[in-house]
Amino acid sequence: MTKHPIPAVIAVVVRDDKVLLAQRRNEPDAGLWGFPGGKINFGEAVEDATLRELREETGIAASIGETLTTVDVFHDQLQQHFVLVAICCHWTSGDPIPGDDAMDARWFEVQTVLAGTLNQSARVAQVLALAQVRAAQNGNS
Q1: CA distances from 7 to 21, 88, 127 (A)
Q2: 118: closest CA among 37, 31, 26, 11?
Q3: Which of 44, 86, 136, 141 could form a disulfide with 68 if both were Cys (CB 3.0 to 4.6 A apart)?
Q4: What are phi and psi of 112, to 5 degrees?
């Protein structure tokens, strides 16, 4: 059986001193907090997938910012390999309302997430820290 990485996106939305996270309903990472996101559909641009997943999971509307990084996520002893493209998004409207495969969606203090005290998916704090550095470099802190 040939296995291939699964392309997916995560939306990194920081507003004031808070970051938007969704609590996953389904595996992998059921019950953990992470950036809203999901698989990219065939023929769908990365930016379109990011905004779609953000809207489906949280009800938040945003505009696309810069691509931050990619994250490899391995599950089930290498039975699943996701390549997550982390995209900064700029909030335009809406309040977090969980939808799609999210049990909950809400804003968290950036420092709480960076401290790693939240029950969160792997590399959430690292990706958020990178977003903070990029925002400071671009004068958006």
Answers
A1: 20, 17, 17
A2: 31
A3: 86
A4: -65, -45
Q: Give every CB contact of residue 103 below 8 A, 6+ residues apart in sequence.
A: 23, 24, 25, 31
Task: Write b or e for each residue in 21-46: b if 16 or more Cβ atoms lie within 10 A of its Cβ, otherwise e.
Answer: bbbbbeeebeebbbbbbbebeeeeee
Position 117: which residue type? Answer: T
Mean pLDDT computed over every residue of the chain: 93
Q: What is the pLDDT of residues 9-38, one digit of tens each?
A: 999 999 999 999 999 998 878 999 999 999
* pLDDT digit string, tens, across residues 70-90: 999 887 656 788 899 999 999
Q: What six digits make up the tokens of 72? A: 């490899």
* Alpha-carbon 108 to chain mean position: 13
As a whole number of angstroms, the distance between CA 121 and CA 71 comes to 12
CA–CA separation, 49 and 107 (whole Å): 21
52-76: average pLDDT:
94
pTM of the model: 0.93
Q: In which element (H, E) is residue 141 found?
A: none
Measured distance CA(70)–CA(7) in Å, rounded: 10
Amino acid at 129: A
